[in-house]
Amino acid sequence: MADDFEFSDKVPPSFERVGNVIKDAEAKGFNPGLIVLLVVVSLLLVFLVGNYALYMYAQKTLPPRKKKPISKKKMKKERLKQGVSAPGE
Protein backbone atom coordinates (compact mmCIF):
# COMPACT_ATOMS: atom_id res chain seq x y z
CA MET A 1 0.00 0.00 0.00
CA ALA A 2 2.78 2.44 0.80
CA ASP A 3 4.33 1.79 -2.62
CA ASP A 4 1.19 3.07 -4.41
CA PHE A 5 1.64 6.61 -3.10
CA GLU A 6 5.29 6.98 -3.92
CA PHE A 7 4.75 10.03 -6.19
CA SER A 8 2.00 11.70 -4.21
CA ASP A 9 4.14 14.74 -3.33
CA LYS A 10 5.38 15.37 -6.92
CA VAL A 11 3.53 17.19 -9.71
CA PRO A 12 3.53 15.52 -13.15
CA PRO A 13 5.72 17.31 -15.70
CA SER A 14 2.80 18.10 -18.00
CA PHE A 15 1.16 20.21 -15.29
CA GLU A 16 4.40 22.05 -14.58
CA ARG A 17 4.54 23.16 -18.24
CA VAL A 18 0.94 24.41 -18.08
CA GLY A 19 1.85 26.63 -15.17
CA ASN A 20 4.75 28.14 -17.12
CA VAL A 21 2.54 28.76 -20.17
CA ILE A 22 0.02 30.62 -18.04
CA LYS A 23 2.76 32.80 -16.54
CA ASP A 24 4.29 33.54 -19.97
CA ALA A 25 0.96 34.44 -21.61
CA GLU A 26 0.85 37.87 -19.99
CA ALA A 27 4.32 38.80 -21.20
CA LYS A 28 3.72 37.86 -24.87
CA GLY A 29 1.33 40.68 -25.84
CA PHE A 30 -2.33 41.11 -26.63
CA ASN A 31 -4.90 38.58 -25.60
CA PRO A 32 -6.41 36.91 -28.72
CA GLY A 33 -9.88 37.16 -27.18
CA LEU A 34 -9.43 40.89 -26.79
CA ILE A 35 -8.39 41.23 -30.43
CA VAL A 36 -11.46 39.31 -31.61
CA LEU A 37 -13.69 41.43 -29.38
CA LEU A 38 -12.19 44.66 -30.72
CA VAL A 39 -12.61 43.52 -34.33
CA VAL A 40 -16.25 42.52 -33.80
CA VAL A 41 -17.12 45.73 -31.94
CA SER A 42 -15.40 47.89 -34.55
CA LEU A 43 -17.22 46.12 -37.42
CA LEU A 44 -20.53 46.57 -35.62
CA LEU A 45 -19.78 50.25 -35.03
CA VAL A 46 -18.86 50.78 -38.70
CA PHE A 47 -22.08 49.02 -39.75
CA LEU A 48 -24.26 51.19 -37.50
CA VAL A 49 -22.56 54.46 -38.48
CA GLY A 50 -22.83 53.52 -42.17
CA ASN A 51 -26.52 52.73 -41.81
CA TYR A 52 -27.13 56.06 -40.10
CA ALA A 53 -25.24 57.93 -42.81
CA LEU A 54 -27.25 56.19 -45.55
CA TYR A 55 -30.48 56.92 -43.70
CA MET A 56 -29.67 60.62 -43.41
CA TYR A 57 -28.65 60.76 -47.09
CA ALA A 58 -31.88 59.04 -48.14
CA GLN A 59 -33.98 61.43 -46.04
CA LYS A 60 -32.45 64.42 -47.82
CA THR A 61 -32.43 63.14 -51.40
CA LEU A 62 -35.43 60.84 -51.84
CA PRO A 63 -38.85 62.35 -52.50
CA PRO A 64 -41.56 61.75 -49.87
CA ARG A 65 -43.56 58.57 -50.24
CA LYS A 66 -46.90 58.79 -51.96
CA LYS A 67 -49.93 57.81 -49.94
CA LYS A 68 -51.98 54.90 -51.13
CA PRO A 69 -55.25 55.95 -52.73
CA ILE A 70 -58.26 55.37 -50.49
CA SER A 71 -61.07 53.42 -52.06
CA LYS A 72 -64.54 54.96 -52.35
CA LYS A 73 -65.91 52.31 -50.02
CA LYS A 74 -63.47 53.30 -47.25
CA MET A 75 -64.19 57.01 -47.77
CA LYS A 76 -67.89 56.30 -47.41
CA LYS A 77 -67.32 54.36 -44.16
CA GLU A 78 -65.17 57.13 -42.70
CA ARG A 79 -67.75 59.81 -43.54
CA LEU A 80 -70.45 57.75 -41.87
CA LYS A 81 -68.27 57.40 -38.75
CA GLN A 82 -67.81 61.18 -38.62
CA GLY A 83 -71.53 61.75 -39.00
CA VAL A 84 -71.48 63.28 -42.47
CA SER A 85 -73.89 61.57 -44.77
CA ALA A 86 -72.55 60.49 -48.12
CA PRO A 87 -74.06 62.27 -51.12
CA GLY A 88 -77.00 60.42 -52.66
CA GLU A 89 -78.17 58.80 -49.44
TrEMBL record:
Source domain of life: Eukaryota
UniProt keyword ATP-binding present: no
Recorded coiled-coil stretches: none
Tell me a GO biological process for this protein: regulation of DNA-templated transcription
Q: Write out the entry's keywords from A to Z.
A: DNA-binding, Membrane, Nucleus, Repressor, Transcription, Transcription regulation, Transmembrane, Transmembrane helix
Family, per entry: Belongs to the S1FA transcription factor family.
Q: What is this protein called?
A: DNA-binding protein S1FA-like
Originating species: Nelumbo nucifera
